[in-house]
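Researcher: Please generate the 3D structure of the following complex. Treat every line as part of one assembly.
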Amino acid sequence: MPKLTFTQTGETFDLAPGTSLLVFCQETQTPQTFGCTVGHCGACICRVTNGGENLNPPSEGELETLEQLESGEGARLGCQLEIQGDVTIAPA
Ligand code: FES
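Model: Done. Output below.
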């Protein structure tokens, strides 16, 4: 079962494979900022510090938004993430 860890709080959660980070955070009131929820605004930008290979690859739209935000290494849009294995997420 995949483990999701937030460096900001140190909390770790067990998730079903394929869980959407957006849906998980909405259902559990986890403090992660979201805006448009469709990969355009960048409000949900975060940094994957471990387990990036356990996420769905970024779509072209996500890559375009990340490029516009001039994001650094490991940056992803939280609203676009599907978790397949252990992942650690930090603020961007
Ligand atoms: S909430 Fe807008 S890009 Fe993710």
